[in-house]
Amino acid sequence: MTAQGLLENLEDAGCGPEFAERFLALERSGQYREQLRLLSGHRRKLLDRLHREERRIDCLDYLVYQLEKPPRRRILNPIDIGGVAMTIIQNQTFDQERALYGMKELLVRDCSFDGPADGESAFKECSGIQVEHSFFNLRYPFWHDHGLSIKDCELTDKCRAALWYSEHITIENTKLHGIKALRECADAVVKNCDILSPEFGWNSRQVTMEDCTAQSEYFMMRGTDLHFRNASFKGKYSFQYIENSVFENCSFDTKDAFWHAKNVVVRDCVVKGEYLAWYCENVTFERCKIIGTQPLCYCKGLKLIDCEMVDCDLAFERSEVQATVTTPVVSVKNPLVGSHITVPAMGEIIRDIPEAGGEVIVRAGDRAVCA
């Protein structure tokens, strides 16, 4: 692409003159990774702006609803479930706007949320909701809900942004196939679910995920207090900017994972993909298998405890790291002063900056050599 073409593309993307000048300077110096970081930062700003506009649209929708006040479908015959009087809705189809808006203590079974009216926000502003064996093909069904259980359900790819701004959630044996299925939620337990959802889990906290499979991009970005067990993930840019989280017995096939993560433990996991955990802080990998080029660069407080490293070259560049590695490493580049890395064999150690004084110990049997 020509310089003029780049400028036109950047202008169309809303980038200002200073941004464009910096981008072209990086282009001239061949710093392509920095260009990608610059573009990624601008993309995040655009997404944040879009998020704010979506909230404003939601406020307008609420005002329209208050003015129109459509008649609510009335369902009677409450029964006692666990000491709570719950209303049961069963074997019905809903397609109108805000079909069950504001309902409380509701059990919904074998229902379908689909139809020509194409209504949104079926369960908005609800509390004490249980949904079982139901089908969702419409947008925004669970927003601003408190106390929500979803079991054995299907949320299709047309069920966009299914759960936002909700708390005290349990989701079991369910397909979550719409984009942005979970966002800005708290206290959520997700078990035995099939997740196919780009941008899943942003800004959510206290999320426990067990025995799930997931495909996504930018998965769980800016999440806090996450606990994943026996989860399998495939996709790009996962777990970026997360904090205070634990992952156990998981398998991740990803790239650019755990960038800027803080206070995270990854235990007994397989993590495959290039550029793992750059710019992270206080992240520990215990008994993990790490696969891919240029992992764990520009890190602070990084620890590896009895980990395997496969096809890992140019590892630990400019990182502060304490590492015990159980397999040979292709190459290490510029570990910072204070670092201590123990390996059984080392292909190459590159030190081309003054700060690269980290210690690398090659230990074979009872012999240990400082490389």
**Net shape:** globular
Helix-strand category: alpha/beta
Mean pLDDT: 92
Distinct helical segment count: 3
Unreliable sequence segments: 70-74
Q: How many strand units?
A: 33
Characterise the protein shown here.
The strands form three sheets. The chain has a 28-stranded mixed sheet that branches. Helix content is 16%, strand content 40%. The protein has 371 residues and is of the alpha/beta class. The protein has three domains: 3-68, no CATH class; 72-209; 218-371, no CATH class. α1 (3-12) runs antiparallel to α2 (17-28) and α2 (17-28) packs antiparallel against α3. It starts with a helix and ends with a strand. The protein has three helices and 33 strands.
Question: Could you list some keywords that capture this structure?
Answer:
globular; 3 helices; alpha/beta; three-stranded parallel beta sheet; single chain; 371 residues; 3 domains
Short description:
This protein is of the alpha/beta class. The longest helix is centred in the N-terminal third of the chain and has 37 residues, at 32-68. It contains three helices and 33 strands.
Write the layout of secondary structure elements.
Layout: H1 3-12, H2 17-28, H3 32-68, E1 78-81, E2 84-90, E3 93-94, E4 104-109, E5 112-113, E6 127-132, E7 135-136, E8 142-143, E9 146-151, E10 154-155, E11 163-164, E12 167-172, E13 175-176, E14 182-183, E15 186-191, E16 194-196, E17 205-210, E18 213-217, E19 224-229, E20 232-236, E21 243-248, E22 251-255, E23 262-267, E24 270-272, E25 281-286, E26 289-291, E27 302-310, E28 321-325, E29 329-333, E30 340-343, E31 346-350, E32 359-364, E33 367-370
Parallel strand pairs: 2-4, 3-5, 4-6, 5-7, 6-9, 7-10, 8-11, 9-12, 10-13, 11-14, 12-15, 13-16, 15-17, 16-18, 17-19, 18-20, 19-21, 20-22, 21-23, 22-24, 23-25, 24-26, 25-27, 26-27, 27-28, 28-30, 29-31, 30-32
Antiparallel strand pairs: 1-2, 32-33
Helix pairs in contact: 1-2, 2-3
